[in-house]
Amino acid sequence: MSLSSSTIVYKGMFLAYQVGAYYKDLADPRFESAVALVHQRFSTNTFPSWKLAHPYRMVAHNGEINTLRSNVNWMAARQASVSSPLFGEHISKLWPISYEGQSDTACFDNALEFLTRGGYSLAHAMMMLIPEAWAGNQSMSKERKAFYEYHAALMEPWDGPAAVCFTDGKQIGATLDRNGLRPARYLVTDDDRVILASEAGTLPVPEESIIKKWRLQPGKMLLLDMEKGQIISDEELKTELATRHPYGKWLDRTQLILEDLKPVEPRALRRDVSLLDRQQAFGYTTEDTKILMSPMATTGQEAVGSMGTDTPISAMSDKSKLLYTYFKQNFAQVTNPPIDPIREELVMSLVSFIGPRPNILDHEGMANAKRLEVRQPILTNGDLEKIRSIGHTEDRFDTKTLDFTYDIERGAEGMPEMLDRLCERAEAAVKGGYNIIVLSDRQIGPDRIAIPALLATAAVHHHLIRKGLRTSVGLVVESGEPREIHHFCLLAGYAPKRSTPISPSTR
Known about the structure:
Order of helices and strands: HEHHHHEEEEEEEHHEHHEEHEEHEEHEHE
CATH architecture of the largest domain: 4-Layer Sandwich
Largest sheet: 5 strands, antiparallel
Number of helices: 13
Distance between the termini: 58 Å
Radius of gyration: 25 Å
CATH topology of the largest domain: Glutamine Phosphoribosylpyrophosphate, subunit 1, domain 1
Number of domains: 2
């Protein structure tokens, strides 16, 4: 049950037909409601448990949130920078918004409730959390595209596949994620009922009473306003929200696009270190250069190989392995086909944002926060030098490069101390006013060894979260170590996505 004055939540671990028998008030003719949100969960590959029972306070969800780890990490990171007069000094009592052990739907429900209680309308919050595909949509109005681009730097998308129904008791609606990989069909009857379900024919409705039948399309939203007594279409709803503020003008005033900045000559590498020495220092093998990197250089694609591998897992191998190999992919409960951002550019975007993240509940202050946008997260040497030099302008960005190599005489035993020192330097840089940190191993050579890039990135990221400083700074990694897609994904995931472009510039 819930303590809300607008909704009552019923949960139970029983079959669907047993709900009415257990909760007697549902069968009482005096019990009336304008809305009903029902979810039946089938435990296909998890054992039934109370913590997985739907619906939650505001949502019922069909599908998975495949970006959950990143979403939860960023909700934790922004805690130190969030404030609102609606919560006042008691806002700390809300933390954590999402935490380990909750289901993906519960974490999403918490984030939605946090945004709506923080001043966003229900539909506005849903558009922030599950945006439709906008970057490659040529037919979308410039006002709506500006709305999504503006909010992309404020809230990372909670990517599905997901069909989500939501309500606050006054409005009820549903939305489909941008890929549209979950079904949602609805009908409207002549006695003012709207029925939406994951399958057609869920409830028996006489055909002659149906005045409209349709389905939710990818990225679209259906909203019913009980107070106004009307159905608000996707077009009407999003046009009203997109034109409520001059998002396009705000972007023109505050946003810089890295690729549009003037070219800057990249700095030179150390002259006393050969290419072969660098490759050996970073653990490159003949297999890496011939089988992995040569096809990538000639075709622009990762080489296709066998699905299986006969090499021992790194934790049980007596060979020296890169740190990346100790991490394996986390599969969703239902495995989905891989999506290519080039082939699927209509529904995918590689746009990233570098720099501090503003207070997500400060609706006015966000309009003046400077933003640095990059069109894709892998940077060239020239792109990286633009970031380094951007601090010499009046664009409110100031960049600090932190070297994560150290004297070879310290050996492996000196790495923990060097990691601590790196974290302290990062903390001091943020407190000193720098809002972009470049973590670099460019100085590697016969006299200096590098901390693994993944370890350095993760250590700085989590240290800044613990100190409440992570949303005050953007991280950029400059390293010659990562060369596989898996490596880049781990680097992006550990400082999480949309904030950590990587420059493979020391190769």
